């Protein structure tokens, strides 16, 4: 079992608020999901959106990777056979 903390409920406007100890490591403005089951409350952070990976720091470390020219990025139009159906990219 983890640490145990005491927290105090207080009135904030027309709502009640729960003051949580700084030792929990929560950041101001963090969104939480609160659940109540049989008179017991649990809370956990809302799932964060996926983070973007910044590759700018490693771009120069791979000299064999070079940016494609516009001509290299253009492809000839061709017919594709997906699931036995001939498709045209019109």
Structure description:
GO terms for molecular function: DNA binding. Keywords: DNA-binding. This is AbrB/MazE/SpoVT family DNA-binding domain-containing protein. InterPro entries: SpoVT-AbrB_dom (IPR007159), SpoVT-AbrB_sf (IPR037914). It comes from Sphingobium rhizovicinum. The protein is 4% helix and 31% strand. The chain is mostly beta strands and 90 residues long. It has a domain at 8-45: Pemi-like Protein 1, Chain: D (Ribbon). The strands form 3 sheets. Strands 1-2 form a two-stranded antiparallel ribbon. It has a two-stranded antiparallel sheet with strand order 3-4. A hairpin with a 2-residue loop joins strand 5 (80-82) and strand 6 (85-87). The longest helix has 4 residues, at 70-73. It is elongated, with a radius of gyration of 27 Å. The model has no long low-confidence stretch (mean pLDDT 82).
